[in-house]
Description:
14 helices; mainly alpha; 2% strand; two-stranded antiparallel sheet; 79% helix; ABC transporter involved in vitamin B12 uptake, BtuC
Amino acid sequence: MFDHYLNHSRTTILFVMMLGAFIVMSIFLPDKFLTLSNFQSIASQIPEFGLLAIAIMLAMLTGGIDLSIISTANLAGVGAALILTKYSLPQLGAYEESSIIFLAIISAIGISLLCGLINGLLIAYIKVPAILATLGTMSIFSGIAIVITKGYGIQGFPEKFLYIGSGTLLAVPMPMVIFIVCILLMSLILNRTSFGFNLYMLGSNPTAARFSGINNRGVLVRTYVLSGLCTGLASIIMISRVNSIRPGYGSAYLLQAILVSVLGGVDPSGGYGNISGLVMGIIVLQILQSGFNILSFSPFFKNVVWGLMLILVMILNFYSSRSAQKMRSKLKVE
């Protein structure tokens, strides 16, 4: 009962923060913030960033972290870009061009799944701590992408592929359609499947999970593979939106993805977090990001703000958890 009240309280606080950020920006920047173009800009950035945040959230639910999401996304994007630029020629027919695009998408997803599998195996079977394993693979994946491209960008993709990042479906941007579908599926997986239950159990208490018959290693591997899948989808949306790929793309997203996960109520120690909280955290951050862009704040200043916010949220979570433990102990005594 108390946990339900605490979860409801966190959701309420997030909603108030989201509403507060919107009101503040609307009051101080009405001419630029409350415009259709600004809302379209916010909506265009949420899907790819949101999918990366989901990837981080999944790793955090196990009590780990995935620092390689950006490198994985870039490597997957490079793989898809090479296929699109090498084999998609002007003289190809509609069927052949569609086949090349399909092959590029499958390649990006396959690369991201492989990267996730490597992370999962290192963490689950070789027992490398998640932060060290993904820090190492981050460098490896990034290095491979740089070697392949020689540090240069790849651009000029077929129009049909660009539809993924800039097209619409019933007046809704395609990236947002993909993101909404992913949110619904992820919510279903986490809340309505045995895998989701096992994942939360593993994050809460690995020892208890093992004695309950849960294959902790298998859950860990599948979690990081699923994280890789979300990263691959983010990569496809990103390169189709900007019509190019460069190994350094999206470097600022890592800190922001970690921030929104914690802001959305995900416990870095594992075992707690939900999609609804994460989505609200994403919206809060994107509203602030929009305001900073309108005010022409430098990326360095924004990094300082994100870092301070992360530390502040962690401090608040610490005291909140400690208060919750005291309350539980008091209720048990009574």
